[in-house]
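Sequence in, structure out.
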Amino acid sequence: MIELIENITILLQHAGFGKDDVSVSHDEKAGIVWFTITTNNAHVLLAKETEVLSALNHIATKVSERYLKETNNRLRVVIDAGGVERKKIENLRSIAHMMAERARYFKSTVALDAMPPYDRRIVHEFLADLPDIATESKGEGRDRHIVVAYKEPEKL
C-alpha cells in the first residue's frame, strides 16, 4: 500500500499540491484510502461542479487499479477537498440503505435514478454484503441506473 500512496502523492504533486497540502488516512472499515487536500488552492478542484476533482479521482482510480490487481486488494482511493467527496459518498450510502430497506419492506425491486459509473460502484459495493439484497445496473448511457432487489433468504 505504501507504493500506492507514493504514486497518488506524486500525482497530486504534479497537479500542484505539495506534501504539506495533503493528508492521508486509511478507513479500514470502508476500505478507502483518503487523500484530503487542505490548502487555500483547493477551490480550484471545486470549480465547475467539482469536474476537476472528479477528473483527478478518475486518474487516481486508474493509477490504483494496477496496484490493486497486483495485490488482489479491494481498496478505493479517494481524493477529497472541502469534504465534498466524503459527503457525496455518505449521501450515496444513505440513499442505498434507504432503497434496500424499501426493497426489504415491500419484498420487491426499487429503481434508483440514473447515475455515473463511479456513483453506481459505490452503491453496488455498499450493498454487496447484504444477503437478502441484490443490485444490478440496467439501462444504457446516461440512463444507466441501479435496481435494488429483495431476494428471499435461502432456507436450510
